[in-house]
Structure formats: structure tokens, C-alpha cells
Specification:
Elements (H helix, E strand, L loop, with lengths): L7 H15 L12 H6 L5 E6 L7 H10 L3 E10 L20 H13 L3 E10 L13 H25 L3 E6 L2 H6 L1 H14 L3 E7 L16 E4 L12 H22 L3 E6 L25 H15 L5 E9 L20 H14 L1
Parallel strand pairs: 1-2, 1-8, 2-3, 3-4, 4-5, 5-6, 6-7, 7-8
Helix pairs in contact: 5-7, 8-9, 9-10
Length: 359
């Protein structure tokens, strides 16, 4: 499946037209998704979900995602680091986790393609103990170079795999703001090297905090990628109107970034746990000793707020939802307060908007 993308000249015209249309009217979100604007500009909306499978899933898992209206599966392949100041990255194409392995990616790409869905390859670094990847950094140039050599090998492997399986998008990095801002020359060279082996669309998954507005090489990529865990309300369990007002605090920055770089926006990760504080700290994972009642209404409203704010905007390319599991996966325990929308009211919100766009 080949993803179409808005050419830069057409994108610039669309953005100017959008700005003209917005003069004299408010930014109040449309109550219904407007697929006609985007489709009229020749853009395929990215409606992706991260798919996490320990073992080869049954057909029902992919059919359920297709029925949801998803256009793409996003596959995360991890590289592992001992600490933020460790200049060594290890990764294995033969990872035992099915969706993280090269063979798993090949099998899932074939099965997704039979259903008309594409693939997004999303490499990510995992630091032992869950430390934040934005903090990766080194005191010596030698350590930076050592880390960059390992990272280049890791990403070039991902790029070759993405080319082999016909992936539509490759994300060349995720939440690596320290490296991105301190070592931009490395990143430009890496992007050039990736384009030698992969001819699909490229982006970088910049964190919403101290990252996406500061990336110095958006011009070298095909779209601006944002890990969109923006805080939207500081009160517990806010209603939809409060959530929409919270997006107003970020919308102008996101739109201005698209205009400045003449690139469409892709939310390379978006997700909400079904917990009362999800609007205030959407990035927050559950702690081992956390005891909290699920809030399914809030999770659903957070997705509604996102769709109503962004889905009708022609400079917005779509989103990757975190995340979906095969039914029966053992990690389903605890899903009632997990990020996944599966089996919750939020899943129906996704289905409503995804299938409306597809229609």
C-alpha cells in the first residue's frame, strides 16, 4: 500500500487558504469530522495504531483493527541502552517479541497488506529502568561518536527493513531532544544515509515538551512528527469543553510550526490512560503501587477533544494511537487503567472518526 502525501507546493497553497479562511472566525472545533477537506487536497489521513504482539496473533486481531478504520499498523522495534550516559546500543533483528522482530514485521506487513493497511516502522530506545531518552547525553565527543555509530547501525537496519516490507513511513528517532539539539549535523547525515536505502516518508517523533519546537532539521524530513502528550487540564476528570479549551493552549504553536516549515503535522504518538488524571499528565505510566479507579468517560472525551481540534485541518496528516494488543495477550491484565482504548468507550470514538474519514 503506497501512502500519498501532500506535495510541498500544494501544501503551501492549502496552508495559505486555511489561514485566509480562519480570518474572522473562531477556532471552535467542528462537531463532526470533515474528511472532504483533506481528501480534496489528495492526502491520505494516517489512522494508525501501535500493535504490540508477544506472539504471532490470530487473524481476528488484525481484522478488528481494520474494522476500526485504521489505515496503518505501527511497529515498534526497540534498541536497548543501560543508562542515559551509556554510549552503547544493542538491538536484535531476531527479537523474541513477535512484533519487534524482523520476521514478525515481515509477517505483519503481509497480513496487513491483504487487508489494505500499511506499515509504519517506529524504532525507539529503551533505557534500563525506564529512564527518559531525552536525557541521553555524554561529556566527551568520543562517547557521542560511539553512541552515534551504534544508533546509525540501528536506524539503517530499520530503514532496510522498512524498504523490504514496503513501509509507508519510517520514524528516524523518538524523544531524543538532547541529541537532536546538541548534534544536528549527525542527524542530517543520518537522514541522508537513510534516504539511500529507503524511499518512503520520513519523520522524527519529537516530544511535546522542550523538543518539537526546537528541532533544527524539520526541513530535511517529510512531515513534522510530535509525541502529543500535551497537558490539557489541571483538574481531575475535566469535561469535554475544558479539554477543548486546553487544546487552545497548544494549537497555535502546532499550526505555526506547520506554516514555518511548510510540512504537515503527524502525531507520531497519542494516547490516554483511562484514569482521572489523564488530562493533566497524559504521559504518566502506572506505578507498581498505584491504586486508581478507571475513568472511561474521560479517556473517551480526551479522544473526542483531539479529533474535534485537529481532524478537519488540512495541514494535519493524522496520528498513531498508543496502543493495541491481540486479544488474549497476557498483558491484558490491568488494561482497565492502561493506555489501550480496546474494549472501552474510547474505542468507539476512534471507530466513529476513523470510519467517517475512510467513508
Amino acid at each position: 500500500m503506497v501512502m500519498t502525501s501532500l506535495p510541498f507546493i500544494g501544501f503551501a497553497v492549502a496552508l495559505l487558504a486555511l489561514s485566509a479562511c480562519e480570518v474572522g472566525r473562531s477556532d471552535s472545533p467542528s462537531p463532526e469530522p470533515s474528511a472532504s477537506i483533506t481528501q480534496g487536497l489528495g492526502v491520505e489521513r494516517i489512522q494508525a495504531v501501535v500493535f504490540d504482539a508477544r506472539r504471532a496473533p490470530g487473524d481476528s486481531a488484525l481484522h478488528a483493527i481494520h474494522e476500526l478504520g485504521a489505515t496503518h499498523l505501527a511497529l515498534v522495534s526497540f534498541g536497548f541502552q543501560e543508562a542515559a550516559d551509556s554510549p552503547s546500543i544493542r538491538f536484535s533483528p531476531d527479537a523474541r517479541w513477535f512484533s519487534e522482530s524482523a520476521d514478525g514485521a515481515r509477517a505483519l506487513a503481509e497480513r496487513a497488506g491483504e487487508l489494505g493497511m500499511g506499515i509504519i516502522v517506529k524504532p525507539q530506545i529503551w533505557i534500563r529502568g525506564g529512564a527518559w531518552t531525552a536525557d541521553i547525553g555524554f561529556d566527551s565527543d568520543a562517547d557521542w561518536i560511539s553512541w552515534e555509530n551504534d544508533y546509525r547501525s540501528y536506524i539503517i537496519h530499520a530503514a532496510r527493513l522498512a524498504a523490504e516490507i514496503g513501509a509507508d513511513i519510517l520514524i528516524v528517532g523518538t524523544e531524543l531532544s538532547n541529541s537532536v539539539q546538541q548534534r544536528p549535523t549527525f542527524w542530517r547525515r543520518l537522514i541522508e544515509d537513510v534516504r539511500q536505502v529507503y524511499d518512503g516518508k520520513l519523520t522524527y517523533g519529537a516530544n511535546w515538551h522542550d523538543d518539537y519546537l526546537e528541532v533544527p532539521f524539520w526541513d530535511a524530513l517529510d512531515m513534522v512528527g510530535v509525541q502529543a502528550y500535551f497537558p490539557l487540564a489541571s483538574i481531575p476528570a475535566p469535561d469535554l469543553s475544558t479539554i477543548l479549551a486546553g487544546w487552545d493552549n497548544h494549537l497555535s504553536d502546532v499550526r505555526a510550526l506547520a506554516a514555518r516549515h511548510q510540512r504537515p503535522i503527524l502525531f507520531t504518538e497519542l494516547g490516554y490512560r483511562s484514569v482521572p488524571y489523564a488530562a493533566d499528565e497524559p504521559w504518566r505510566w502506572a506505578s507498581r503501587d498505584e491504586r486508581v479507579e478507571p475513568d472511561y468517560r474521560l479517556q473517551a472525551d480526551l479522544y473526542r477533544g483531539f479529533f474535534e481540534t485537529f481532524w478537519h485541518r488540512p495541514w494535519f496528516d493524522g496520528a498513531i494511537i498508543w496502543k493495541f494488543y491481540p486479544e488474549g495477550d497476557r498483558r491484558g491484565r490491568g488494561r482497565e487503567v492502561d493506555f489501550t482504548p480496546q474494549g472501552k468507550p474510547a474505542e468507539e470514538v476512534l471507530r466513529t472518526w476513523f470510519t467517517a474519514t475512510a467513508g
